Structure formats: C-alpha cells, structure tokens
Amino acid sequence: MPKIVHISGAVDAFYHALADRLHRAGATLTDDPEEAEVTVGIGEGASGDVAVVPAHVDHGEAGLVVRIHDLLIPEGAVDWGTEVLHEWADWVKDGAEGIHPPDIEARHWVHVRDATDALSLLILADSDAMVQGVLDMSGRRAWSAKSILDEMRMLWSRFTNALHHTHTISSLSDNPSPASSSYRPRPARPDLGPLHDALLRAGGEGWRPLVSMRMALMEVFAHSDD
What is the CB-side half-sphere exposure of residue 178 using CA atoms within 13 A? Predict the structure, then answer.
C-alpha cells in the first residue's frame, strides 16, 4: 500500500537510491516529518520508524533497525564501506603497478539496488506485516580481496582491448566469475534468516540478492571518474 514517507540523513548516493526506489514503489516523499506515515532515518545515529545504518555505527530510537554490512554503492558514498573498491578500481586503471591499496578481509558485498529493493518492501509493508527489532543485511557470499582484484583486472583489460582494438582469442574467452574462487574458509556471515522471514511477511520472496559481482564492478568502473 502506498505511503507518505519522510527520509532524513546525509543526502548521498544511498539516500537518492532509496528515495528513487520508494518513489517507484508508489510512495509519496515529503520533507515534513509531521506529514509522514513512515519516517526513515539513514546513517549514524538515525532514528524514526525505520533506521537504516552501516553495521559498524550506532543508531538512535527506531521501531525497526536495518544494519547493512558491506554495502556496494557504485557511485560511492562515505561511511558505507565501498571506498576500498573505488581505491582498487583507480589502482587497476593506473596499471596495477606497485603495492595495491590496503587489503581487507573477505566481505559479503550487497549491491545498493538489492538493498533498496528489500528496504522499500519493509518500509511500505502494511501495518500488520511491519516487523520490529533489528535486522542484519548483507550479501550471501563472501568475496576475498584477491577475487575482486582479479575480476577488476580482467574487466579493465577487456575494456582497454576493445578501446584500442587489441583483443585476442584469449582475451575474449570466457573468464569464470569470481564466484568460482570466492573466499574459503568462509568468514562469519550476519544472520540473514530474520531478514528473509521479514521480507516474506511483507509479501516478497525473501532475501534473494540478484545483482552479480561482475555487473557491480563494471558499474564501479563506470562511476570511477565521477
């Protein structure tokens, strides 16, 4: 059911992505929290009917808190964790020479489109289907730094080969997705069961992220000069 929604917090790429997704779902956005049927706070200290925060920061008072782990925003946004991917993309574009930017532990990346699809369903759920408490959100698979960097190198090589007409049979052959070399042993993943159940209750199909890592990294490159 469409609702009137007020969003507060830093106006960054994540804010715009969530606002756009809510609008496309039929919500009416308002700048006045007094007019809103649902208030949504974003970022550190967020409060409201729903608070959406990076997993490593504190939140304020909220009926529902969604903690997002390893959010992948191709456009980039401060505090959500994507900064390292943009540093790596710049390093690969510069020739991948010398010491690459700082390594990280394997992460359960989740694309911002998958995240906002799920959030819109939770925020606009009928009152009897709205959940309370704390939900953790992340991708389902862990990705090592090596897997991400290998994929970035392959994607950038394909782009430059196409640009300069230097493709070979080898460069055009299929490369396996980083899924085939995803991190093992697997690091601890947030418990996604409550999120899956909440999305089912809200009328969705549960937590089923759809955006592939390859597509996500292509979008990171596309936005790396923005």
Answer: 28
Cα(123)–Cα(11) distance, integer angstroms: 18
CB 133 within 8 A of CB 64: yes
Write out the two tokens for 77. Answer: 């946004």
How many CB atoms within 10 Å of residue 148? 23
**Tens-place pLDDT, residues 101-155:** 666 788 999 999 999 999 999 999 998 888 999 999 999 999 988 889 889 888 8
* Other beta carbons within 10 Å of 98: 7
- Residues paired with 215 in a beta bridge: none
Element (H, E) at 158: helix 145-164
**Structure-token pair, residue 82:** 């994507």
d(CA 88, CA 168): 25
Neighbours of 133 (CB within 10 A): 10
Please answer whether residues 150 and 89 qualify as being in contact, where contact means their C-beta atoms are separated by less than 8 angstroms: no
**Residue 58 tokens, joined:** 């504190």
Alpha carbons 144 and 103: distance in angstroms, whole number: 9
pTM: 0.88
